[in-house]
Amino acid sequence: MLKTLNKQRPVRSRWKKLGQSILQNRWLYVLILPALVYLIIFNYLPMYGIQIAFKDYKAVRGIVGSPWTGMNGFKHFYTFFNAYYFGRLIGNTLLLNVLSLLFSFPMPIALALIVNNIRSQRLKKFTQTAIYVPHFISTVVLAGILYILLSPTNGIVNHLISALGGKSIYFMNEASWFRPVYIISGIWQNAGWDSILYIAALAGVDPELYEAATIDGANKWQKVRYIDLPHIVPTATMMLILNSGSLLSSATQKTLLLQTGGNMATSDIIGTYVYTMGLGSGQFSYTAAIGLFVNVVNFILVLSTNKISARMNGETLF
Question: How far apart are CA 179 and CA 268, in angstroms?
């Protein structure tokens, strides 16, 4: 009896402390309430619909009334794994995202270091504004700009190639040019915006560190190496872990806008396939299964990258 009471007291004490903490910080909880409600409504409640990946969903019957599939509920997964274009879809999606991560990830860091070392405040503000602006250009407008600039007849890029003695290139219709166009345009549009986190991290560096380094005779490159880079490593690690969780995801809208019959061999990715089969053919259960498969793989990648990061430099996301 005494042992049971002794076990209950710590539990009651913890609940009491929790209640007191909530009461003391009640206004902070009120502030996060809208975000919490948004998260529940748009992120957690829709998870109820995941079950259609294991059903032959019929809109007229609804989710509950639709029958479960065969093969222990994994019929749609087997169908996708045995699809004719499965290998090409996985390969194109993975290669596109790996190359994007490889070339795009260092650019915000480089921009943040450049901006941080600009001494003129006026030039610094102008540079920041200039590199942020492309982020606010819609994907549709960006695709239109690319078609105009890379046009084989009127595009300024091909005019320059012709002026230098080269032959005009139909960039948007050649499979070999899809990935470079996609990645380079992505860097131009998002690198400046993504640098905000690193600029914020550098803003928190103690100015006395730079003063001490100057007294010791350190030049700009040495300050970047021994002061700036160590301070942005935690932020860079966090972003790398998060980005690794999207290696099988893709910017479907942008890919669809840049996709043509000529570049289909490299632009045919999971996102465009899901769009075609889901909205084009009405195979909602099949595409839900593909989406669930992609999310599970991305989740495993996040956990794996986080574990590797913890072993290599001790920096983790969670």
Answer: 11
Beta bridge mates, 58: 62
Q: Is the dihedral of CA 106, 110, 116, 120 positive or negative?
A: negative
pLDDT digits over 134-172, tens only?
999 999 999 999 999 999 988 999 999 999 988 999 999
Residues of the chain with CATH 1.10.3720.10: 85-138+170-312
Sign of torsion over alpha carbons 57, 81, 182, 317: positive
Distance of CA 248 to the CA centre of its chain: 10
Band of residue 11 on the pLDDT scale cut at 50, 70, 90: low
The CATH code for residues 85-138+170-312 is: 1.10.3720.10
Round to whole Å and give the CA distance between 305 and 241: 6
| Among candidate residues 64, 41, 46, the one with its CA nearest the CA of residue 292 | 46
**Cβ(73)–Cβ(54) below 8 Å:** yes
